[in-house]
Structures
1.
Amino acid sequence: MQNTEKKQWGVLARDCAIEAGKLIKRMLEEPLEVMYKSSASDLVTSVDRAVEKFVINTVLGAYPDHGILGEEGLFTDDISGMDTIWVIDPIDGTTNFVHQKLNYCVSIAVYHKGEAQVGVVYDPTREELFYAEKGNGAFLNDEPLPKPRQMVMEELLLASSVIWNRRAMKSGLAANIQDLALRSRGMRVLGVAALELAYVAAGRLDAYISLSLNAWDYGAGKLLVEEAGGTITRLDGKEIPFGEKSSILAGNPHIYPKVLELLGTKRV
Ligand code: 2AM
Ligand code: CA
């Protein structure tokens, strides 16, 4: 794969995210159509579907041989034999989107032979576009993200929603995260995984912990964290398997080892 090809994917991914943001804002002018998926806390709206459809059509218009792995599953061809796969979450943070009409984002990643090459997380409300390109760095609205700062535990700003997860409460992981929060400067629950990963990349958060994210939730954020000099693994410190549901620990590299240690062995 050529560098120029990767650059072209990056241009299309950014264009797609910005156009998706405009589509979302236009659709927000009308009443939202909200539906339950598996439960009352698992929502989807007509906007999620419209955005996924828009991204699929745009990507296939430019690259008919590429595949798409999207949260709403609107691309139905078998992607298992395809080299280049766009991993997309049309709206990450759907609950925020429905309740607040802000604190959501569009997440688009391009994976080639199982490796992320391009990652875009776009927050239409704040017009913030986080972009990462494999080997070429991470950016916010075209400005390179700063290098991770030196830091100690007392300065940690942590993000997680694991503390009230039943499995984590039972296993003791939730208590370990609470203990971590007690040693830190504070904990935040943003409810929008891709943006939380982008914020770790940008140094706005120092660590992010999740029990279970789908490929479209972490697809772009993972590359952003890595290209910004951060560390991202599963909660057991191992590599995240491509395309699979996974636990996630992302952090500033100067604090990541200590956070991993304090999470302990009760990782569910
Ligand atoms: P979504 O809004 O695209 O569904 C909420 O803490 C974050 O976790 C959001 O990014 C949300 O993505 C994601 N999320 C919600 N339910 C999930 C599930 N069952 N598995 C994986 N990720 C989930
Ligand atoms: Ca989603």
2.
Amino acid sequence: MLKNKVAVITGASRGIGKAIALEFAAIGADLALIYAGNREAAEQTVEQAQLFGVRAIAYRCDVRSFQTVKATVDEILSAFGFVDILVNNAGITRDGLLLSMSEESFDDVMDTNLKGTFNMIRHLYPHMMKRRSGTIINISSVSGLRGNAGQANYSSAKAGIVGLTKTVARELASRNVTCNAIAPGYIETDMTAKLSEKTAQAALEMIPLKRMGKPEEVAKLAAFLASDSARYITGEVIRIDGGLCI
Ligand code: NDP
């Protein structure tokens, strides 16, 4: 389904990004996989992806840095020749009530989640525009759609991603490039493993399907959005949250 396509996935060493990488590999995409510092985990994703017979290379790149992202995108383009799919998945949380939230914690979350997404799109935009084809998938969150106490930084960044997604969809539509967002609810990864027992239990009670989602379930949705079956979908935000935000 993604045979002969090249996908760039950020935050692909763990969790949802890794699941997306392996799902894309299973359906034939070659992969440029970006991670922050966890080299061992990134190399493991590469090895697992290669078992599907695709090309996969890991790139250490801090998505917060405009210049580092530019250099990495240049490196990817010279290694693969072109890019069809960009998945902006790298993200962090630094939760706490706004009353005591530090400037650093606000900036860090905004820089990683929102500016990182901007940086990646900014440097692949000219390439996709010239090629007159491409798909961008941004990982937002239900926190960005409805707000979440204790996540002023994170929900602002994730809401920003929604605005960015719709703008990019409008700007690049005439070049046959689509841009959509996925808004997951609670998904079982390192990020949610940090939640206290009490918070996790309270979350489960609010989810109509009464369980957390799996990274592989988000990956299936990303694979659909990246496929030719979704070429008429752009500027959309799709929740995958077990009904949390109904
Ligand atoms: P994880 O904490 O499991 O993984 C985060 C990934 O992002 C890692 O690969 C990490 O790399 C990478 N990363 C972090 N900072 C940077 C950076 N500055 N530059 C490049 N890469 C970076 O997260 P999840 O899989 O849980 O989350 C993935 C995305 O999904 C995030 O955007 C998150 O906000 C979103 N999301 C997650 C939900 C959940 O319940 N899990 C719910 C809603 C949205 P490294 O391993 O090298 O540190």
